[in-house]
Prior knowledge:
This protein is mainly alpha-helical. The protein has one domain. It has helices at 3-41, 46-69, 78-106, 111-137, 140-145. Helix 1 (3-41) runs antiparallel to helix 4. The chain starts with a helix and ends with a helix.
Amino acid sequence: MSVSQVDRVRSRAELVRQVVPFLVIGVASTAANLLLYVLFRTWTGAQVANLVAVVVTTVGNIAANRRFTFGIRGRRHAVRHQYEGFVVLGIGLALTSGALAALQGLTDPAPMLEIAVLVLANLAATVVRFVLYRGWVFHPRRHRAHG
């Protein structure tokens, strides 16, 4: 087996090892997000409730993925990881806010329909988040390169 084949096998194994904790953290984050959304939605509009829910759950999501999905411990680069995680948050927020705005532009949605749309938008945001966490925020070569 050539060096590049070994690297590909290692990369695939690492991907599989990362997917399981990422999914567990994602399910917990989504549940917390939806709970906060429903709570805040009783007092505010859909967009504000979504913003608060996403921002509050993002800090824990980044920290949990940093440690359990990507195996990074300690404080080194933690602030940078949170900052970059919030850049990724912006993309996810755009997806969920856009989905809510589109839904509200079409109809006066029932709360359960809003939640269903948020779940679907969060699924899309989760795929984007995993790709960006793995390829940018927590990429191993980048982590080593910054000492």
